[in-house]
Amino acid sequence: MNLISGTCKNGAFYFDSYPSSGIKVRGRFTSLFYQCVKVNIKTPCGIKTYRLDFSELKHWSKFQGLKLEKMPKLKLISNIHAFIYQKNGSTFPFLTGKYYQHRLNLEPWLTSKGIKKARLIDRLFFRSVTFLAIVDGRLKTVHIRRKSLIKWMESVQIPLNPDLKGNEALVYTVQEHANAIIKKQSEEQQLQTKPKENPVEINKPLPAIIPGVIKNILICRLTYNKKGEIVPGTTQEEKRLVFDKWQNDPRFSLKVLSEASENTVQVLCDDEENELINVDATDLSRRLHLSLSRIKKYAGKGNLNAYMDKKVLNMDVVIDYYERILKKMQGLEKQILSPAVLMKIVRLLVKKGFLKQGSKDIQKLQTIEINDWKIACGFSDEKKLLLLDLASLTFYNKGAAGTIYTIKSFLSGRLKVIKIACGMPDYILENEYYTLKHFHGYGREHGLQKAPQMLFRMKIEAEQKSRYAFLCHKYEGNLLQAAGLNKKLKPIKHDIFTTFGKKFNAIYQLVCNFERIYRTKLLHHGDIKLENVFYEVDKEGMVQLFLADFGGASVLDEKRGFHLESIAAPQYLPEGDLNAIFSARQEGNQGFFNQVAHKMDVYALGCLLYEFFSHGQIPYDPKQYVLRADYFPERKIPPLPTLDGPEFNRKVLESLPEELIEIIAAMTNLDYEKRICLTEVKDRLDEFKKSSQL
Fold first, then answer.
1. Which DSSP letter does residue 17 get?
2. CA atoms within 13 A on the CB side of 463
């Protein structure tokens, strides 16, 4: 039996030599129904056996960068043992030997009499010992007679420890002695075969020329090697070689050694003094992610500088991004990537030139495949590297403003939204992206959906070419869902608006936020409706609303001129508004244009309130509307209300307080000149809230 050190707590096993998430431990009874792997632990109280869930062990190995999916069970166990022991700096954990005449001969005692095998019938009548061993070059489950094993141990002078009991203790004792003898034989063989060398020859450094300067550095921050392991920094002032090619970053500098040894590289600094110094080859390989053997090889040929020019990546970019993602991973409860795999991903992206900064082009996601994962990599505007799990990409919804997909963040597992410009020009989605960025500025504007994290190009099967897309936060749903009116999406499981007070307060905050943003930043949205208002419920059960979908949004100021790509939602625009907005644009009257555009948003917001409080009704009878074909002959658009047309339908809202009905009626007045503005809407809602004590 082969021992691995670790601890078992809360029904899970944790390796000591390589910290990770726990692996489920099965009981003796439940192991009958699940495939398990036995792991034996040496403790002060003896050796204990734990049964690890085989599927979770395979899952764990995948996240450590081990490709063990399609392996026989014995080979998988062998590779995991080797991996753990290598991390722990221990010797290989399996006994090795050969079968000869129904006896097992173990190394290094191959000339001994051997141990009797325990056949199936023997195991029924005699006590036997079972363990894994490499026999005849293959990992096998070995069965031997216990009595024969004890007798053989006495013959090869392996003392029995009376404190350790059980078959595992016997095997562990044999393995300890085997490792000690093999290690001693190896050391003796090295001493015998090692040629006599001139001491001066041994300490002769390898020649190399590297451009750099000598500096007295007080603090050199830690860095990471190629496997993601920490390379410690310094706390005392010391002479170090700083390379010119890596921004003089002390993290990649090398300590200047006073004496040469067989592991040093002699460097001729390419500076004014041309000083010849000694540096440690191992330190060079760890800090700059190079092969130690190749450093010595090329240094011996005198062309180490050429090798480094070819192989050294932009190390400050590699380490900065690795540290950033590692810090984020450490803040998460579940660690998906091992440091080695994370470093491999970052290095691969640097090799492909993906982490170069300063490009003004719309980025394309970089797709990499590693350990059976398909990862999409992109940059946020804050230059944060984002990793997305492409296997989780799922269609969510399709509307006039684009197609929506959900996708998981590879690090946190949280759902994100990808909005793709399908069925509409790219510039509309691009306008939405930059409009949200403008209104949020350097902080966060309450009441608006969160700013998208990145803009990129993406190709999906439905499109022949790549289209604009952006990544953004996923909300719990929209008001159309909350009202149970969205037939495309599943209704929410529970009513989030249990009282009129909750409904009013949520809408009140939405109006207040919108009025503040219009007053301070001159926002014109252009497409306000229930499905374009997202919601989230906080820990206290309060509903927060966020205005979304800014494809037709604009800023109403003199500098930006006339901009109205989207003329609002179909049922939210009276005929008089259309006539006025087109007239203002034709005459070049910017002030009048801005006034009407603002009143259009007020009308749309009033219709939203009407629908929200009436469960999907509209404020005017659609049978009396006139057709909009004269304005938009190329599109099928529903009719719109006219000034001489229908009356405001108050009966639908008769369950509401009269003050609130009057506010909604004033917001949806068909005459934009008589319609109230946003500031007046807010003031009247303030009065209603105060008088009704909501």
1. S
2. 18
Contact indicator for 507, 664 with CB cutoff of 8 Å: no
Could you tell me the two tokens for 594? 């801005």
Task: Say what the pTM is.
Answer: 0.62
Whose structure tokens read 């009143």? 599
CA distance linking residue 52 with residue 54, whole number of Å: 6
Domain of 285, in residue numbers: 207-312
Quick check: 622 and 491 in contact, CB under 8 A? Answer: no
| Each residue's pLDDT tens digit, 450-463 | 999 888 888 776 66
Shared domain check, 396 and 347? yes
Q: Which amino acid is at 112?
A: S
Q: In the 8-state DSSP scheme, what is residue 234?
A: B
- DSSP assignment of 319-350: HHHHHHHHHHHHTSSS--S-HHHHHHHHHHHH
Cα angle 513, 518, 520 (rounded to 5 degrees) comes to: 95
Other Cβ atoms less than 10 A from the Cβ of 56: the count is 20
> Burial letters for 307-335: b for 16+ Cβ neighbours within 10 Å, e otherwise?
bbeeebbbbeebbbbbeebbeebeeeeeb
Task: Give the model confidence (pLDDT) of 407-436 as tens digits.
Answer: 998 888 889 999 998 877 888 888 888 889
Give the helix, strand, coil percentages of the chain, each rounded to 5.
35, 25, 40
Query: How many structural domains is the chain composed of?
Result: 5
The answer to whether residue 191 is domain-embedded is no
Task: Name the nearest CA neighbour of 617 among 644, 585, 656.
Answer: 656
Which tokens belong to 188? 């003796």
Which one of 442, 471, 500 terminates a domain? 471
Tokens, residue 371:
């350990």
Amino acid in position 419: K
Domain C-terminal end among 58, 86, 114: 86
Q: How confident is the model over 183-199, as pLDDT tens digits?
A: 887 777 767 665 555 44
| 206-210 and 264-269 beta bridge pairing | parallel
